[in-house]
Amino acid sequence: MKAAAGTPAEPFFLKADGGQRFCLYHPPAGPARGALLYVHPFAEELNRARRMAALQARAFAAAGHAVLQIDLAGCGDSSGDFGDARWELWQADLAQAAAWLRERTDAPLRLWGLRLGALLALDYA
Question: What is the pLDDT of residues 10-26, one digit of tens each?
């Protein structure tokens, strides 16, 4: 799969309770048609899906969607220990990430989850 051309992702750390969360923001090409918050899968599936999620995020951005990918507490490059992560903490991470995304665009916000991330997104919605 060839990556969509466009503006490179903007990496940053979002301050959160108990530390910081690693994020990648993919700005939309042109005016935002929508906003997507990506909720990654559980444990090692996060790493296995990271490349395909990044490619899809770039494609969404090239199609005019603002995309925020966040590593939840204790996962990926975010602070915290995986053993201390809890569903409620991840829900708070999603709320904070959604608020960050809403501050940057007034486009409709949608959740995009993979495997357990889809269940977490559904519960958050």
Answer: 999 999 988 999 999 99
